[in-house]
Amino acid sequence: MAKRIIAIFGKDIGYTLSPKMHNHAFKKLKLPFEYKIYDGQRTAEEIAGLILNLDMRGANITIPFKKKVYRYFVRKHYKIDPLAERIGAINTICNKNGHLIGYNTDAEGFMTALQQKLDPRDKSVVIIGAGGSAHAIAMALADAKVKKIAVFNRTLGRAKDLCVHIANHHKNVVVEPFNLYVKHGKNRAFNMKELKPSFENCHLLINATQTAMDRLADEAIHILPRKSFVFDIVYDKETPLIKAAKRAGNCYMDGLEMLIHQGARAFSIWTGKKPPVQLMREALHA
């Protein structure tokens, strides 16, 4: 039996562990799917076209396409799952008889991972980044009734958009946008005027970027209370933030469990079967 492709679309994603995780599960359960990487710059229209023209079963969408694909689905009036609609980003697509449906599994993946270590209710949170992953994480935290979310991003406009989006759905959560950087002569420097008090009063620090925290990690952890929890969504390496948290004695988690649980939800969407979470975890630790 020919295997149907399930793809991951992103740019510069040679590091991704998703193929290893999903193909291990497909093989063990004898399912007729093969998970492949489609790395490179594409429009949302091109992504949708490839899924339909190659009759793929579905796809994961990652950096930097999650919000672009969501906007394309809205324009085309494609079906969007209610959670993805609330988040404003799509990371999973299912092709049902030539009809594309958009989902977001990042929120569930993040919260399932986090709640293994921390209950975020009534906590003050700092999120670094304002992309598709940050949108999903912020919505999941607001749904879990955190007290406050401060969003720092290199582009203030995107941080504002994220905060407005969350505020429109959650009136009782304080959301504040900030510039991650300020101008320092001809260069830029971290916005410590706003970062310092945010870190000092933070229960949960989340890095939702690939590299933005690398040069800030040591200073952030120095300011952060020792009881504060650190979550870095990067999973393919031990980041400077995780190294600094480990040295200082803060509790921490990298993005591997989030990857597993968002992948498990996507697996169930594509296959209609209960996700083999332990099999998927074993594949990544093999």
Q: Could you walk me through the main structural features you see in this protein, from its secondary elements to its overall organization?
A:
The chain has helices at 18-28, 44-53, 66-76, 82-87, 106-114, 132-143, 156-169, 192-200, 217-223, 240-248, 256-271, 277-285; strands spanning 4-10, 33-39, 58-61, 79-80, 92-96, 99-103, 124-128, 148-153, 174-179, 181-184, 187-190, 204-207, 229-232, 252-253. The strands form 3 sheets. It has a 6-stranded mixed beta sheet with strand order 2-1-3-5-6-4, with helices on both faces. The two termini are 28 Å apart. It folds into 2 domains: 4-104 and 258-285, 3-Layer(aba) Sandwich (Rossmann fold), CATH 3.40.50; 118-250, Rossmann fold (3-Layer(aba) Sandwich). Strand 13 (229-232), helix 10 and strand 14 form a beta-alpha-beta unit. The mean pLDDT is 96. The chain has 286 residues and is an alpha/beta fold.
